[in-house]
Design brief:
heterodimer, A: about 350 residues, alpha/beta, Rossmann fold, 8-stranded mixed beta sheet, about 35% helix, about 25% strand, B: alpha/beta, 2 domains, 4-stranded antiparallel beta sheet, globular, membrane (chain A), ABC_transporter-like_CS (chain A), transport (chain A), Dipeptide ABC transporter, ATP-binding protein (chain A)
Chain lengths: ~350, ~350
């Protein structure tokens, strides 16, 4: 009975729905259009990956969801619906109460995201300030969570300061803190970038297990395609502030439709099994996001660009059941095949 | 071919506390051995990779070679001349023939110097005022594929990939025989990584210098290098030709590192090997084989006796420190499966 209700809810409404989001940063040189017409759904209980290169706006999107933007940021259009309510229209105190309760975050750098002058214990107790219960209950919960993220003998470690832990252990503490509040949505901004390869595997497996156990959704921001392929259910590919393609992880990795996604996958040296002296690259550079843009954002680096790409911004074309991409070629192909 | 650089039994030690504190706390060995008896050589025009995780001592080796760090013992000889014992001034003529690219592409360029000054600084340091600085900077920029007007820019006006190119141009300035590249692709996007690696490969083909690449990224190693050495806690645990190691890793740590280098394919990543725990502290080196605490094949002997290097019977250049090296089983008809298993020689 309850199960039915739940599935209905999932199909009816995603946990987080970003709709037509536009965001500018005001700078002395002019306005930088960091996000343009970004739409994205995070269904309950799923892991959504956002991939893209530096400057593609993937972290800006994560920070916008959390409301952690700098003062020069300005959302010019769009909405972010979380559990049906628009985060952008919410009064600031109401929005704040969601943080560390329904929403929590893991940052890129585990060295700087913990307070260096306070013990892990006091930080883990403080993060539960939304919950009822005594200090000792909260401490017990923190101990339990530390054990679950794989910190051996938490009873002796909980009184330690962040600098007593290694990088991998600190990221585990951050994950424990983020999940301690049983969030509905966990935003993870490049959580494995600062870690070694063998630790990255551990953290990905840990996130995967805990996500299944707690049942939360994860918005996983990364530039590492391998990590996204392993962890995520769905992927959105971002380029220069736009989501150029999104869909189920298998479709995107096996059947990329947008030329940028294809180029990005080709570039990953992990894909190239044979030893070669010349690796594929994407010629050209990411365009400046200053000023207004017309046409397809990727056209300057696209092998297939033609007249229409200069004149007209591509709309989303549906490929298959569950994959959309912004590219004019997809419309052409359709015309040809029809 | 003769060896350009030969490193023998190199040891580098760092003090962890002052002598008084050590005395007061009763610490017998107040230091860590970051590099612990490493030997290797680089031939002319060859590319060697040092691979390992943070703290494995790979950058320390590079810093010791160029004299930023003193060795405790061991020898470093460059083109037949022992250089470890030389003083700074005596070392200088040899340093001219080695160039280092540091890890952080933007951070390793002085923020107050223009690209032109950065590129001509090596000439000034080594007292070579032979040619016009402007045209020299232009020549170097052209070599790394940057437009000539970049000479007027400052480091903060460069993207990560461009700063990396300037770093390469600076390393090339004195036409060295050896380039030491510390994490040449760290912090760069995949599309830019390819550009930087292609550039290094092209320049090596043109100029014929040897390259020592230090990295934790196995993707870089596979496409760039002739031989590789895998480090764990300051020691080499496996050395051999790159092709051979990728095809037939013998040490379980190498196997785990290779598996941690996932292919971006949701169906291909299921066989990643998760190592237990973390790299042990150098202050408390495990007994016996230092990897036994995280090894899934470890047996009794591994925790007791330190393994000596052994070589593959069919490839004497391929050596490893393991009692139970992995072996590829080739099942006829199922070659693609290539399971690795523990076998005894």
């Amino acid at each position: 009975m309850r199960q039915d209700g739940l599935t209905q809810q999932i199909s009816a409404r995603p946990l987080l729905a970003v709709r037509g989001l536009n965001l500018d940063f005001g700078t002395p040189r002019g306005r930088i259009h960091a996000l343009r017409n970004v739409s994205l759904d995070v269904p309950a209980g799923q892991v959504i990956g956002i991939v893209g290169e530096s400057g593609s706006g993937k972290s800006t999107l994560a920070y916008t969801v959390m409301g952690l933007l700098p003062e020069n940021a300005d959302v010019t259009a769009g909405s972010i619906l979380f559990e049906g309510k628009d985060l952008l229209k919410m009064p600031i105190p109401a929005r704040r109460t969601l943080l560390g309760d329904r929403l929590s975050m893991i940052f890129q750098d585990p060295m700087t995201s913990l307070n260096p002058v306070r013990t892990i214990e006091s930080q883990m107790i403080d993060i539960q300030h939304h919950d009822q219960g005594s200090r000792s209950e909260k401490r017990a919960r923190a101990l339990d969570m530390l054990l679950r993220v794989g910190i051996p003998d938490p009873e002796s470690r909980i009184g330690a300061y962040p600098h007593h832990f290694s990088g991998g252990m600190r990221q585990r503490v951050c994950i424990a803190m983020a999940l301690l509040v049983k969030p509905a949505l966990l935003v993870a901004d490049e959580p494995t970038t600062a870690l070694d390869a063998t630790l990255e595997v551990q953290i990905i497996h840990l996130l995967k297990d805990l996500q299944k156990e707690i049942g939360c959704s994860i918005l996983f921001v990364s530039h590492h395609l391998g990590a996204v392929a392993e962890l995520c259910d769905r992927v959105a590919v971002m380029y220069a502030g736009e989501v150029v393609e999104q869909g189920a992880v298998r479709d995107i990795f096996h059947n990329p439709a947008h030329p940028y996604t294809r180029a990005l996958l080709e570039c990953d040296p992990g894909r190239i099994k044979k030893s070669t002296r010349t690796l594929p690259t994407i010629p050209g550079e990411v365009p400046s996001l200053l000023g207004s843009k017309q046409g397809c954002i990727f056209r300057t680096r696209c092998r297939h660009a033609y007249n229409r790409c200069v004149q007209e911004s591509p709309v989303e074309y549906r490929i298959g059941l569950d994959q959309v991409a912004r590219c004019h070629l997809l419309a052409e192909e359709r015309l040809v095949s029809a | 071919m003769s060896a350009l650089l030969r490193v023998q039994d190199l040891r580098v030690r760092f003090r962890t506390m002052g002598p008084l504190k050590a005395l007061a706390t009763g610490t017998e060995a107040p230091f860590i051995d970051a590099v612990c008896g490493v030997s290797f050589e680089i031939r002319k025009g060859e590319t060697l990779a040092l691979v390992g995780e943070s703290g494995s001592g790979k950058s320390t080796i590079a810093r010791t070679i160029i004299g930023l760090q003193r060795a405790l013992s061991g020898s470093i000889s460059f083109d037949g001349q022992e250089i470890e014992e030389l003083s700074g001034a005596e070392r200088k003529p040899y340093l001219r023939r080695m160039a280092m690219m540091f890890q952080d592409p933007v951070g390793s360029l002085s923020p107050r110097l223009t690209v032109r000054s950065l590129l001509t600084e090596p000439f000034r340091i080594h007292g070579l005022k032979r040619r016009d600085a402007g045209s020299e900077a232009e020549r170097l920029l052209r070599m790394v594929g940057l437009p000539a007007d970049f000479a007027r820019r400052y480091p903060h006006q460069l993207s990560g990939g461009q700063a990396r190119r300037v770093g390469i141009a600076r390393a090339l300035a004195l036409n060295p025989d050896l380039i030491i590249a510390d994490e040449p692709t760290a912090g760069l996007d995949v599309s830019v990584q390819g550009e930087v690696l292609n550039l290094l490969a092209r320049l090596q083909d043109e100029l014929g210098m040897a390259i020592l690449i230090i990295t934790h990224n196995l993707n870089v190693v596979r496409h760039m290098t002739d031989r590789m050495a895998i480090m764990y806690l300051g020691r080499f645990i496996e050395v051999g030709s790159t092709e051979r190691i990728f095809d037939q890793p013998r040490h379980p740590y190498t196997e785990a590192l290779l598996a941690a280098n996932p292919e971006p394919d949701p169906d291909a990543v299921l066989n990643r090997i998760e190592l237990k725990g973390e790299v042990p502290s150098l202050l408390r080196r495990p007994s016996g084989c230092e990897f036994h605490t995280r090894c899934r094949y470890a047996q009794d002997i591994c925790g007791r006796v330190f393994p000596e290097p052994s070589t593959s019977p069919d490839d004497t250049e391929h050596s490893f420190r393991c009692y139970f090296p992995l072996k590829r089983e080739i099942i006829p008809g199922l070659e693609w499966l290539h399971p690795l298993s523990v076998g005894t020689e």
